[in-house]
Amino acid sequence: MKLIIIGSVAAGTSVAAKARRNNEDAQITIYDRDYDISYSGCGIPYYVGGEVESRDDLTPRDAAFFKKRYNIDVMTRHNVTAVDADAKTVTVENLETGESFTDSYDSLVLATGASSIIPPIPGVDSDNVFPIRNIQNAEATRNFVDATNPKHATIIGAGFIGLEMAEQLKLRGVDVTVIERFPQVMPPLDKDMACRVEDHLEKNGIELMLGETVTELVGDGHVERVVTGSGKTIDTDLVILSVGVRPNTELAKSIGVTIGETGAIAINERMETNVKNVYAAGDVAESFSLVTGKPIWRPLGSTANKMGRALGDLITGGDLEHRGILGTGIFKVFGQAVAQTGLSEREARELGYDIEVLHNTKPDKPAYMGGKDMTIKAIGDRATRQLLGVQIVGFEGVDKRIDVFVTAITFKAKVDDLFHLDLAYAPPFSTTKDPVMYTGMVLANSMDKAARLITPAELQKRIDAGEDMQIIDTRKAAQFEKACVDCAVNIPLGNLREAAKDMDKDKPTVVYCNGGVTGNAAQNVLRNLGFTDVYNLSGGNKNYQLFKKYGN
């Protein structure tokens, strides 16, 4: 068996390693036009920032390693320029010598990855403009920062890499402006969660310009000013391009491989393309959503490694199929962790789900052990009671909780199941009723209409429409006077039973506190007193004030 793999980062090397473990006799060759293989692209911001000291830490394996350990030929600086699918051959150019040759295959894997999008902006080819994608980009950026000690950097794009770069440059003493064409950072997040990240970034000295585009980079081969679509001008010493990536599908298209609706290569569960004996894996290929079953493209190293291992097994006679993904992601900026999995509220509504939405703010562990609040936004499907998606913003324990939610969604758990999980508890690690358990409990109660929730956006919409409602702030007077919901009256929980005697039991009523717990207690009081239409404000006044500040 002769296996050729085009691409030598996460997916390509995983295919090769698994294929070799299964078949010692296979002839396995990897071609890659780049210099480095199997590198950690996700670690690049930390190399630029100096947290990772050496580029070697991001490139722990080279071609010699793969030859010695796996007897796999990895040919860097070799570009596959053409494929003849009928003859099952590839044409390869040696980029160092300019010579070309032909090689043959029994199975061909397209693991060509994705490339940074370079926006067509005047000045984008200047010497102080850097995309962030591969090790050469990383080294060039770090060398520039080390040599010139820039005072200001402009980052175009507010996704994972853009925000991680903002943090790392700021920690190096560089003032940072982030420009994002969407009206929020982290566009995959819902706005009411992204605003928490925006608030944290601004508190750490990052200037955000949201809903803005860059129209020109001004300077004679060296950018001195950035001009935006609204006419604003920013003096800068360094520009980082982080506007996203696109799959490298050119070679695939040349042989008639079908490109899916996401723009990546369409594959089946065995990662086969529509062209016989040609497979695809990693950032160049689509996956499918474990929630909807629809195609999904999430270019992450974790997904690429998983797809590569499965494909290496399948090609050598195994049955390790690719089961799909949830699009899980996590990153950290100035100590704040941001995680998501499954569908956002926006996506769920666009897909037609009848959803229940919860904002749950709880500490990761007891306050007496230094617990810090995390906000969990969970989306459940009322029809099936299944969990559809979760987003979390917090400072400790976020990774633990998102992974529990990932497992629950993967195995199609109902929101009711979360409360019954036997999660690990001890004061240094968790509260007795873990935030995961509390999320399931509150979502289930709301679906049962026993303790219904209302989001800040839904409440504000009803207020703006002039609906006759009773909105009750159950906190102390000093808290109420500092910040409250529009049209609310202050009735502390201890006074609620008496005050309820003069209230209309049939009028829509919303109660709230700071985060939701006391609001839920007030909701139960009113329900037990015969009030027929009572809501607890999801996430409490803290959530509402963020909504009012940043919009939705």
TrEMBL record:
The UniProt record lists the keyword Flavoprotein: yes
Required cofactor(s): FAD
Domain (Rhodanese): residue spans on this chain: 465-549
InterPro entries in UniProt: FAD-bd_OxRdtase, FAD/NAD-bd_sf, FAD/NAD-binding_dom, FAD/NAD-linked_Rdtase_dimer_sf, Pyr_nucl-diS_OxRdtase_dimer, Rhodanese-like_dom, Rhodanese-like_dom_sf
Cited Pfam families: Pyr_redox_2, Pyr_redox_dim, Rhodanese
Entry similarity comment: Belongs to the class-III pyridine nucleotide-disulfide oxidoreductase family.
Name of the molecule in the record: FAD-dependent oxidoreductase
Organism: Exiguobacterium mexicanum
